[in-house]
Amino acid sequence: MTKKTTSGRLGNTNRGFTLIECLVVVALMAIMVALLFSSQKKVLEFANKVKCTGHMRNFAVALNAYTSDNSGILPPSAYGGVNNGEVAIYLMPYMGITYTSKNLDMVLNMLECTGKSWRFGFNSYLSQKPVALVERPSEQIYGIDLYSGRWLDSNVLGWKTTDLTQRTPKPHGGKVTVMFLDGHCESRKVSELTRAQVTRNTSSYLSSDETKAIGSTDYDQ
Ligand SMILES: [Zn+2]
Question: pTM value?
């Protein structure tokens, strides 16, 4: 009798995990790892957005100082134009940075967005134009995150296919950082931005630009 009882107890004590229990543990671990990576990704995305917007605000402040100092004329910002439209060259002194090739590299690095080829580009249509020409500066796009681009021009607006007008994943959770001419910066979906916000008050403006989005909702990804 005693032997039977002992044997029964030992049998219960050493019972292993069932297959279902093992699967539940594995599933829980998978969920925990996924949550960890997901929150880490969100934190990184948020940090990138803050960094990108912060740099753009610095350029916006410098742009305001530059135009005040240059009779209200915006700096060259067109591909192939003066200094190849590298706006940073003109804004450096207004950021308290002396022009040297090393310092220029540093300022150009500030134009980098996520380090995955996204970079800030400036509006070519407004190259060397007077600020007073623009009726609604708070709606006029002066700069925007571009994929491998430096100039916001006809290519970007979709006459050729580009990052903003394709299903290219955008750098800030489906959005790009935009600097408006009044100096404020926002993260926006490409489907929320119109071509008119780039071309308005320039010779390239068409009335149809008012209702044409830069990109469709399919490209908000
Ligand atoms: Zn960005």
Answer: 0.80
